[in-house]
């Protein structure tokens, strides 16, 4: 009787230890997965696409060459992380040869986990005597105005409602306005 009791107790003890070991292994795996997910938090990508031109006005007068237009663009914020990305209000700047010629605000929003947030922005653009004359008049004569867009989104990736990690996303795109067709060509984002 005594020995039987002892051996069943030993079996119970062994089972107990097996449970604890399995629990520890499971916990370690979960912690490792979380650490891996956190380490793999990547910068989201922000790009400009589907740009259309409205109200294009170009003056090629050699004394005061100028251009103005409205651009409608689709901004995409691609978030590949397993948590959502919440970003702050950001200024999107359009430049001609390094001189800002137009601005728009990207309004604070969140891009859901593993998805792409899309929104439209309208940017009114004007060369307004801000741009050096010589290069502008030769560009206008050639029929192509090259513009670039820049924005830096600042925000945080939120994981499991507890972990927040600062991440920024930078937009750097170039595009050409074909003034005879009133269209955008060669949109390239870095
Ligand atoms: C962000 O921009 C929107 C619209 O312009 C404004 O209503 C809001 O107050 C701004 N938020 C911050 C934190 O500045
Ligand atoms: C952006 O504008 C285009 C053209 O007006 C429209 O087809 C599209 O649905 C808009 N997209 C968003 C996300 O609002
Ligand atoms: C404007 O676009 C048209 C049609 O694609 C093309 O034939 C023309 O060469 C373009 N103009 C310039 C200056 O690239």
What does this structure look like?
The protein is of the alpha+beta class and 190 residues long. It folds into two domains: 1-38; 45-189, Immunoglobulin-like (Sandwich), CATH 2.60.40.10. It is 25% helix and 53% strand. Strand 1 (45-59) and strand 2 form a beta hairpin. Residues 74, 118-120 line the site of one 2-acetamido-2-deoxy-beta-D-glucopyranose. One 2-acetamido-2-deoxy-beta-D-glucopyranose binds next to strand 7.
Quick structural gist:
The chain is an alpha+beta fold.
Percent of residues in helices comes to 25-40%
* Helix/strand order, N-terminal first: HEEEEEEEHEEE
Spatial shape: rod-shaped
CATH top level class name of the largest domain: Mainly Beta
The quaternary structure here is single chain
| Strand-pairing-aware structural class | alpha+beta
Strand content: over 45%
| Uncertain segments | none
Which features would summarize this protein structure in a list?
190 residues, alpha+beta, Immunoglobulin-like, 2 domains, 2 helices, binds 2-acetamido-2-deoxy-beta-D-glucopyranose
């Amino acid at each position: 009787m005594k020995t039987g009791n002892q051996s069943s107790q030993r079996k119970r003890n062994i089972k107990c230890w097996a449970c604890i070991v399995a629990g520890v292994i499971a916990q370690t795996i979960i912690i490792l997965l979380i650490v891996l997910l956190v380490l793999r938090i990547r910068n989201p990508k922000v790009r400009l696409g589907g740009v259309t031109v409205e109200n294009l006005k170009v003056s090629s007068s050699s004394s005061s060459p100028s251009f103005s237009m409205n651009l409608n663009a689709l901004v995409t914020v691609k978030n590949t992380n397993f948590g959502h990305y919440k970003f702050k209000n950001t200024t999107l700047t359009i430049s001609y040869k390094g001189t800002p010629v137009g601005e728009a605000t990207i309004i604070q929003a969140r891009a859901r986990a593993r998805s792409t947030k899309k929104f439209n922005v309208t940017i009114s653009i004007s060369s307004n005597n801000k741009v050096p004359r010589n290069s502008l008049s030769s560009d206008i004569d050639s029929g192509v105005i090259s513009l670039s867009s820049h924005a830096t989104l600042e925000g945080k990736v939120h994981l499991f409602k507890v972990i927040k990690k600062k991440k920024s996303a930078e937009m750097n795109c170039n595009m050409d306005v074909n003034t005879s067709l009133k269209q955008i060509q060669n949109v390239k984002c870095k």
